[in-house]
Amino acid sequence: MDVSGIEQKLKEKRSSVEVWIKRHAEKVCFPIYSSVDLRDAGFKISAIDANIFPAGFNNLCRSFLEKGATLFREYVKQNFGDIERVAIYPESHTRNKFYLQNLHSLKFLVEQSGFQAIIATADPRFSPPVTELETVEGQKIHIHRLFREANALVSEGFIPELILINNDFSDGKPQELVDLDQPVSPPAEMGWFIRSKWEHTQFYMSLVQEFADILSVDPWLLSPVTEFESNILFKTGEGLDRVAKKVDHVREAVVAKYREYEIDREPVIFIKDNAGTYGMGIITVASGEQVLSLNRNQRKKMSRGKSGADIRSVIIQEGIPTSDYFIGQPGEPVVHMIGDQVLGGFFRYSESKSEIDNLNSPGTKFAKLCLREADEFDEALACYRGHCSFDLYYTIARISCLAMGHEMKSLELCPEVLQDKEN
């Protein structure tokens, strides 16, 4: 059994899979948008990261953004009613011009949906009333300052009816967003100051088990072996003996599966910050012994996350090599969602990385995967498209999105009507 075999089984069981997805979707709510990183090894495929405050909208084809406008408008109407004004609340790293390009594209999507939109923040590091910045492609964008008036955020007479968050709040929920009358979406409580990769992985693995049962395949072919360890501190070495034991345990499980499927390669194990984002707080090892002999730079890399807080818990996860290459360079697909609907995707690749490395890292490049309009293809992308299992990619992304929905429900972030329905 390999990925092509799994895709064939998916085609045969598509109607049963859709019934199963719908049944789970009725039990949860979904973030307004999200993205899912995938790895296709040829012999297995899995989601490897799930982002509830996604960037990368600038890497989507215009046709995807136009499709997204319809999906976004429908999601907003269903969840927030007939509103007109949206404030996009961004990250604060304005020196990253690629991120600014993302904001430019996200604003385009919101405006294409028929809403008035501004990019605005309550972060005091931005000068009122507006800060003008330039994207990597040379467009001007304006970051407006939001100020608290009673239980609302306003900007120079612009009163948003929805605060659209594009900030993962690794260092906590801003006080300005507490007890607002305006809806905030996705909920700030889904930021990494609360959210956990381990919790998401547990929901994902549970769903994959059910999905695999429908297809009659081994769930290992759809998920990485993963374990968890807490109460650790890399800079002092606290708890690293326990991490090392978990690494060896994961490695042994992967070796057994490689032997079962006659896969001739050595396992690589990822150690990831349990609240990590932007590809930070990740190292790879081949054995538990390597954990105990990490050099100073490796320990430093794993000491603090994006917010500067100490990394105190990690997931220990099987590394999945990619079989996807773009212009000869290893890469991986990223799928964007609006609610529980697939919006589209792009391809992340790197000339300086191997097929097993973390590709969400500095120096990574991006290619649009334009699948809807023939005139949007270039030769390389058309060639890449020829061997991709997009139906399977999108289904895996939907399962990861279901896991995010279960996360939201577990944190009691779903509407009361849904909570009541379950009781």
Automatic annotation (TrEMBL):
MF GO annotations: glutamate-cysteine ligase activity
Record carries keyword Membrane: no
One Pfam family matching this protein: GshA
Keyword Ligase among UniProt keywords: yes
Matches recorded under InterPro entries: GshA, GshA_N
EC number: 6.3.2.2
Domain of life of the native organism: Bacteria
Keywords from the UniProt entry: Ligase
Top-rank EC class of the record's enzyme: ligase
Protein name: Glutamate--cysteine ligase
Gene that encodes it: gshA
